[in-house]
Amino acid sequence: MSNKDLTFLKCTIDKGIRVFNLYALPIEQQILCNVNIRCYGYNNHSPGPIMLAYKGDRIRVNFTNLLEEPSTIHWHGIDVPSNQDGSVEVGQNSQLAFPKDTITYEFTLNQEGTHIYHADYHGMNQMLMGLCGPLIILPNKKEEFDKDYIMFLQEWYIPMAKRTVIPGTYKVNPYMHESNFFTINGRSFPYTHPFIVNYGDKVRVRIINISKTNHPIHIHGHQFKVIATDGNPIPPSCQLTKNTIIVGVGETYDIEFIANNPGIWPFHCHMPHHMTNNMVNGLGGMTLAVKYVK
Q1: What would the pLDDT profile of 169-193 be if each residue is shown by its tens digit?
Q2: In this structure, are residues 251 and 262 in contact, taking their beta carbons and an 8 Å threshold?
Q3: Keywords on this record (predicted)?
Q4: How far apart are CA 275 and CA 286, in angstroms?
């Protein structure tokens, strides 16, 4: 699995349990050249690091809250016991991490696929401020992919005059209905990194949408198969061949394509203003390139 903008969350093994340490805190992050945002992140980045495990693993996550407000973690799409789900505001008997607290989640992963972890306390604020990340559960059997990428979709509103991109550092406002900056793996085009492929590669892309609007994701020059939805594998006889897929809020899709058309190809959200930076003319926003090197 290769993603230049995302790191893997380190783990240790304690009596067969995979142990992770995750912390939430205010951060400053660059999304464009000379444009930084003040937001929240896990382990100093938004989206947070890739949490990687295998189906059947028991995991333990020590969560430290360095915010000035309480927080929890919800394991989006994972069937965990109620007291590990992180949704305290509906009355669950789940732990709440107050500022400077460390709490522990522990459960067994009985599923596989592409999932999400995110804040679930004051969720509109904390999640849209950046508290989210990918949780990838690998099957126990070997998978045959040459490249495996994550495309983590987020959007932001930052206070900037319309149709301008003014260098500076801005605090994001999660309460605005419309967003004006759109990111993949924490960056806006042309600051995004390309997905590098070789001719003939079998490529999987794990698309994750934890923003507040749906995104029709489109690739140029290729057709893809939809092989999983919300972490659930789709039987080959039911897999659709497409070049655009609408990824709803809170959804994940795994798609697969064969790199059989050399060049440099756009891969982007097809909502027109999502392909811009604050509505400035020219390509930007939720866009990256698929780039052949061989």
Answers
A1: 999 999 998 999 999 999 999 999 9
A2: no
A3: Copper, Metal-binding, Oxidoreductase
A4: 5
